[in-house]
Amino acid sequence: MLKGKYWSISLTIVFLILGLLLSLQFRTQRLLASSLEAQKTEDLVAMWRNLSTKRNQLQGEIVQLQQQLYALKTGSGQDNNTGEALARELARLQVSTGLAPVKGPGITVTITGDAPLLYEDLVDIVNELWASGAEAIAINDHRIGAYNGIAAKEEGSRVYITVDGQKLLYPIVIKAIGDPHTLEKGLTFTGGLVESLNNYNIYPAIKKEQDLQLPGTALPRWQYARPLPPAPQPAAK
User: Fold this and answer.
1) CB 125 within 8 A of CB 35
2) Residue burial 43-71, b: 16+ Cβ < 10 Å; e: rest
3) Which of 61, 120, 52 is nearest to 92 (CA)?
4) Between 171 and 71, where is the model more confident?
5) Which residues neighbour 237 within 8 Å (Cβ) at sequence distance 6 or greater?
6) 60-104, pLDDT tens digit by residue?
7) What is the C-alpha separation between 26 and 210, in angstroms, rounded?
């Protein structure tokens, strides 16, 4: 009985994190829409293909989790193997949703205090990095996930950029883990985002890195939302 209760809790956590991952993809796509009009057709096609690939991967993950749930309910004598598989899946989803610290190659994008940067510009940079294949992003060591908000805050005559309500101090350093060359080209291609920022005297310094370390973030506290139970599986014949 205790073992069944343990697996029920584990599966609930796995599906909860998968829901966060899907929410992150949806939120990213919504934010991308704010800057699509300035993109070239070929760039939009590349971004669409990248997002479609991520969507297909997420759909595949849902199928895998459903299969694991079915195997857990119907299998016998396979508790150890199922537990190990769930533990690996949980660890991977924690990385994908930003809950776990990560490290790997990528790039840093540094913007100094003399740049007239707006929070919308920061959102555009983050979205461009996601579209270019970034697997994890942090801004001044604030891990960016499904529920992080980038906004502006007024204090007297000054306006500050914030992440989750916390003021960002300059220099603003964006760290993105992924293929360094692809991430850099996603920002610097002719007519791209960096060229557009240069027109407003914003000159991001981009540097390729081989060993970036990004912190994890905490789960939000929900007041109303509750996870749905997994869909029932057909009985084995």
Assistant:
1) no
2) beebbeeebeebeeeeeebeeebeebbee
3) 61
4) 171
5) none
6) 666 666 666 666 656 545 556 666 777 777 777 777 777 788 899
7) 29
